[in-house]
Each structure stands twice: as structure tokens, then as C-alpha cells.
From TrEMBL:
<protein>
    <submittedName>
        <fullName>Uncharacterized protein</fullName>
    </submittedName>
</protein>
């Protein structure tokens, strides 16, 4: 029986922009810039201000698609070593999100945990989330942080700072070629 949260029913969204934002954060952290770069922050604010509601929905869907792809890769990597992805990834994500109370509202953490578990079990994160209503403003930073943390987790496993970005970029290039 097919689930209403089956990824085949989910819009892919704007994966390219979502990936660009994740990659930008990764590079900033890897370059040792832990504080907010005022120039970078201004560019992001200018970009987000230019988004229409349709563009914003596309970016949300794209970020959820990236989370799904990251969790699919992580599930396969952990299963190859007879390990459960939920056991190894979700506690790390939850612990890190909870350690970020100025950026991530505590009430958004359980939603992100559920979103990651949904993706780990083969469900579309955006369709899973939609069954509980519209996204809230409080969840936006948490969603961005979750995607970033998954990318960083993949990069650490692969021992390659660009692996997660390359993983998605290559999948996009393959999809465009088809």
C-alpha cells in the first residue's frame, strides 16, 4: 500500500538554491568563521526578501528533498556496516539542535527529529511535515540547521569537506541529463 508521504508524490522544489545555502554555511564553518559574517548575512537577507511565496515554498521543498537524499545516503552507509541510521544520526541532530537555543526554538526540535526519522524510513520529509499543517517561522532556522548538520555528518563520515555537496550536485546533474 502506498503512503501519502511516498517521495514519488513530493515536489522536488528548488534543490539548487537549497544546496547553495547549505554549501555556503559549510564553507563558512570550515573556514573558521563561526560568527555571522555581516556581508554574508546581508546577502542572505536580500535574497530571502526577494523570494515570492511560491519561491519560498520551492526552497522549503528543495531543502526537504536534500534532507531526504542525505538520509538515504546515510541509511545506505550505516546499513552497509549493519548499523541503524536512526540510532546513529537522530540523537546527534537532536543534541546539537538543543545546544543552539538562540538559533533553534526548542519546540522545533521534535519536529526536526520526526522529519529526519521520516526521511530515514523512506518517507518524504516535506509531505510528512505537511500532514501537521503549514510550516512555522520558528521551524525555518531549525530546518536549515538540520540540513547543514546532516551535510556535515556526511562530510565527517566520508572524510571529505565537499562530499555532501558533491553528492547532491552529481544527482542534480544526472537528473538534468535524463
Amino acid at each position: 500500500m502506498s503512503s501519502p508521504c511516498d517521495p514519488r508524490h513530493a515536489p522536488a522544489g528548488d534543490v539548487s538554491t537549497g544546496l547553495m545555502m547549505i554549501d555556503s554555511r559549510l564553507k563558512a564553518i570550515y573556514d573558521g568563521r563561526t560568527g555571522a559574517d555581516p556581508e554574508q548575512q546581508a546577502l542572505v537577507q536580500q535574497f530571502t526578501a526577494s523570494l515570492t511565496s511560491k519561491d519560498f515554498r520551492e526552497l522549503l521543498d528543495g531543502t526537504c528533498t536534500i534532507i531526504f537524499m542525505f538520509m538515504t545516503w546515510l541509511r545506505q552507509a550505516y546499513e552497509a556496516h549493519d548499523k541503524d541510521v536512526v540510532e546513529y544520526v537522530v540523537p546527534d541532530i537532536v543534541t546539537t539542535l538543543r545546544a543552539m537555543p538562540r538559533s533553534v526554538r526548542p519546540e522545533a526540535v521534535p519536529t526536526m527529529a520526526g522529519l529526519v526519522v521520516a526521511a530515514a524510513t523512506g518517507l518524504s520529509p516535506n509531505l510528512w511535515r505537511r500532514q501537521y499543517g503549514e510550516w512555522t517561522e520558528e521551524e525555518m532556522n531549525a530546518l536549515e540547521a538540520t540540513a547543514f548538520l546532516l551535510a556535515e555528518h556526511i562530510n565527517r563520515l566520508a572524510d571529505d569537506r565537499d562530499f555532501a555537496t558533491r553528492l547532491i550536485a552529481e544527482a542534480l546533474a544526472g537528473a538534468e541529463a535524463d
